[in-house]
Design goal:
Strand content: under 5%
Order of helices and strands: HHHHEEHHHHHHHHHHEEHHHHEEHHHH
Strand order of the largest sheet: 1-2
Distance between the termini: 51 Å
Number of domains: 3
Oligomer: single chain
Number of helices: 22
Shape: elongated
């Protein structure tokens, strides 16, 4: 599907090069249906792709005299302000779930796709019914209806911000009618306006610290730009008016398809996401029509608590101040729903259970509290609080299709084969500097969000990181976690970025750095049950504490078999 997506990316640019528009109408569907990008994130990506492509397309138009800087500024200012405000404030403020209509859960993603589909249909009629325009390049006496220009610019800016489309089909008529520009100048001026408002709108998303797959984004953008040049050459050989009308019919069909797919044939409920022999697939609460009312609200709150723990329970938490500012999601990726991302899939199915670390049968409450005390270096959550009940409800719902005693593929953290040597912190430092420092900082301090309440990227050591009793302080856990997930924007369980040796070495480096200490005197009451890589003595063997921390682990494993 990715290959088809890259081909489609070129077609985005070809459309812009051939008919001067239409590329933005294709961008969001390509990202959503061919690359699997979530719709809200796809609208952000579209702003960058459309902006960069339009900027490239505008340059030759202005060199040929087919552009008007004054008009671009007058029309562009309200449009740019509107699109930035929409991406910065309006889009994040839209609730993840808006309600239920005729049994269909109206989510933020569904709303965005429906708006985009309506826009596609409106654009298609504009293309299909367009009359041959006056292509005169003779400058007319310019007139500016400033009030209408202000209103039109703001409207187009909000529209662009919501769905990620350039809005050229609205801008060009407005420039012709409201500022008396000739058509060719209107097209060039429109491209510059689209470029400016789209790229500046994208900075609104950047300021909200969204997670961007820059590799994918830059690849699609580059291919779209290549397509522009191809389209520009083809435009000299193909009748643009006929092509525009044909493209309009294509866009109409696509718009109707999106409405049908999103509304008439909604994504099935999570009940179809049953565990099979293949890798576990997380359900989505926003497509699950089987839970309602207070139960649903509690699950959604639990998900938000995992994703934004510090907002509620951090040093500046609105409910309590019991954690260090990290979020549960910093270790349990995608709110505990990511394959091989330390997910919660099998938690409800396997707790209560006996754990060697405590020597006791532990409940889910004990497991959650351990995370609060160790990974978040805080204190236990109140078992009677709404917050714990919400977390419990979310964990239960997330793992509802996993049977007792079952551990599907992709659950938790992958266990890597031991190295035939010790993991090397010095080599790990090189890996960290090259691949990790850009997000987690040169001193492992992480990156705080602008609100100064939670971390965008968590600290990996220092006073605000996990303490030495956390699960990730064992380098086998850290290495397995890194392999499938880091660097965050480049790796996946299907396509790891780092080698396993690099994963072991960077785990050794990170866990050799200073961090908070927690008293573990009560842990592992049966010493022989300690994991091989538990870094603190005493042990039931004669191997050193250093070897238990960094390896090589194979000799310890063999020795314990005797």
């Amino acid at each position: 599907m990715a290959i088809v997506g890259y081909v489609a990316s070129i077609l985005i640019g070809i459309s812009l090069g051939l008919i001067g528009g239409g590329g933005s109408i294709l961008t969001v569907p390509v990202l959503v249906y061919l690359f699997g990008v979530e719709p809200v994130l796809a609208s952000a990506y579209s702003l960058f792709i459309v902006g960069a492509s339009s900027l490239v397309g505008a340059w030759p138009k202005f060199k040929q005299g087919f552009g008007n800087i004054k008009t671009a500024i007058i029309f562009g200012i309200p449009s740019i302000a509107a699109v930035y405000a929409t991406r910065k404030f309006l889009v994040p403020a839209i609730p993840a779930e808006l309600g239920t209509i005729a049994g269909v859960v109206v989510t933020k993603s569904l709303l965005m796709m429906m708006l985009f589909a309506v826009l596609m249909i409106a654009a298609s009629f504009s293309m299909i019914r367009s009359k041959k325009a006056n292509d005169s390049n003779e400058p007319a006496e310019q007139e500016f209806n400033f009030l209408l220009i202000l209103l039109e610019g703001a409207f187009v800016g909000v529209l662009t911000g919501l769905v990620g489309a350039g809005g050229g089909f609205l801008i060009i008529p407005a420039l012709v009618l409201l500022s008396k520009l000739p058509m060719k100048q209107a097209v060039g001026t429109s491209l510059l306006i689209i470029a400016a408002k789209s790229l500046i709108g994208f900075t609104g998303d950047l300021s909200n610290h969204i997670n961007i797959n820059w590799t994918l984004l830059l690849m699609v953008t580059a291919l779209a730009i290549v397509g522009i040049f191809i389209g520009d050459r083809l435009s000299k050989k193909i009748d643009g008016n006929k092509l525009k009308k044909g493209f309009g019919w294509f866009v109409l069909v696509m718009g109707v398809y999106i409405i049908a797919q999103q509304l008439l044939f909604p994504i099935p409920t999570n009940k179809t996401v049953a565990v099979t022999d293949s890798t576990w697939v997380a359900p989505s609460i926003y497509t699950d029509n089987t839970v309602h009312g207070e139960e649903r609200k509690l699950i959604i709150y639990g998900q938000d608590l995992i994703a934004h723990t510090a907002k509620y329970l951090g040093p500046k938490g609105s409910v309590a101040q019991i954690t260090n500012g990290m979020n549960c999601q910093n270790c349990h990726l995608q709110a505990g729903a990511k394959v091989w991302g330390n997910n919660y899939a099998a938690v409800f199915a396997n707790y209560p259970k006996f754990r060697d670390r405590s020597g006791e049968v532990e409940s889910i409450y004990k497991r959650v509290s351990d995370c609060m005390e160790r990974s978040l270096n805080g204190t236990a959550i109140d078992s009677n609080s709404k917050e714990f009940k919400a977390i419990y409800a979310y964990i239960k719902w997330l793992g509802q299709d996993v049977q007792k005693g079952q551990k599907p593929n992709g659950v938790g953290i992958e266990k890597l084969a031991y190295l035939n040597r010790s993991a090397d912190p010095a080599k790990g430092q090189v890996v960290y500097t090259t691949n990790c420092m850009r997000c987690h900082g040169d001193a492992g301090q992480g990156q705080l969000a602008p609100n100064n309440v939670e971390y965008v990227y968590p600290p990996l050591w220092g006073p605000h990181s996990y303490n030495d009793g956390a699960g990730l302080y064992r380098i086998s856990n850290f290495a397995g976690y890194v392999k499938n997930n880091m660097p965050f924007d480049l790796a996946s369980h299907k396509n790891p970025f780092l080698t396993e040796e690099q994963c072991w070495d960077v785990a050794a480096y990170v866990n050799s750095q200073p961090r908070p200490h927690i008293n573990q005197n009560s842990d592992w009451p049966v010493v022989k049950n300690k994991p091989i890589d538990f870094p603190f003595a005493p042990y039931a063997d004669d191997f050193s504490e250093t070897q238990h921390k960094y390896g090589p682990f194979a000799p310890i494993q063999e020795g314990n078999k005797k």
